Amino acid sequence: MKIDNAQLAAFAETLREGSFDLAARKLNVTPSAISQRIKLLEERMGQVLIQRSTPCQATAAGRPLLRYAEELALLESEALSALGVVDAGAGAPSSVRIPMVINADSLDSWFLEVFDDLATSTAITLDLRVEDQDHSLLLLREGTVMAGVSASPKPIQGCRVEALGVMRYLALASPSYVEQHFSAGVNAESLNAAPMLMFNKKDALQQAFLAQLTDAVIKPPTHYLPTTRSFGEAVLRGMAWGMIPEQLAEAQLQAGQLIELAAPRCLDVPLFWHRWRITSSALESLSRLVHKAAGKALRQAQAS
């Protein structure tokens, strides 16, 4: 059985863009043409491949096909780039698209150096997805991304995993907040009453830090702020305490605008680079840049 290229392109672009309409614009066809191609592909495969939701998602049957489509697109774009073929739409040599996933704290801190290295090159274009470091592997399993940063050292099928280093988080608060909520010390009673800040419902950093301090069940008033900048600003303004990467808090700590709640207690999170196990010069290049940036900013893991 051979897969029709037009049907495969419609399938993959719908999942990349999230809807039939957006995929149609990208491929310069009508939404009905996209729908028809996907319907024919599903009939040929004998299975439903796309969950018609907002956004559209691959079904369990569609995930292996999505990975195949992404691998094919990567190899095709690398071949065109090597041949110096010009993109008719952009008027420039073809670049290699790499979808990857990363957690927000890494994206806003050490990973920025990767942008510096890519700024002078058009050989690679990144399609970045932001997800918590404990949940990013799901996108790799689904075939939605080719690479990503994760806190898990366990490789998934078809991927290799490489250690990047350790990201240290500090429990921080403003001096006025500490005076208001922890004047009698940091203990189970004060921690249970003091407002705490979390990135989102998946964020487990604060609870992991609390487990280091006490065996008591701590359920403080909790705020949720899902951007790195607003998270840091809320802590700085005395709204709550929260776990912040040491790289992002260095200036405020030196200026005395933030202080640690329970120094020298901290939370070290090992980070790992997961990538598809395929031969790709672009993926190799990106991996080298990621390791270079991580090597400069992250702590080295302690030998056990």
TrEMBL record:
The keyword Transcription is assigned to this record: yes
Domain named HTH lysR-type: residues: 3-59
SUPFAM superfamilies: Periplasmic binding protein-like II (SSF53850), Winged helix' DNA-binding domain (SSF46785)
UniProt keywords, alphabetically: DNA-binding, Transcription, Transcription regulation
Keyword Transcription regulation: yes
Pfam families, A to Z: HTH_1, LysR_substrate
Entry protein name: LysR family transcriptional regulator ArgP
InterPro entries assigned: ArgP, LTTR, LysR_HTH_N, LysR_subst-bd, WH-like_DNA-bd_sf, WH_DNA-bd_sf
Assigned protein family: Belongs to the LysR transcriptional regulatory family.
NCBIfam families reported in the protein's UniProt record: argP, PRK03635.1, PRK13348.1
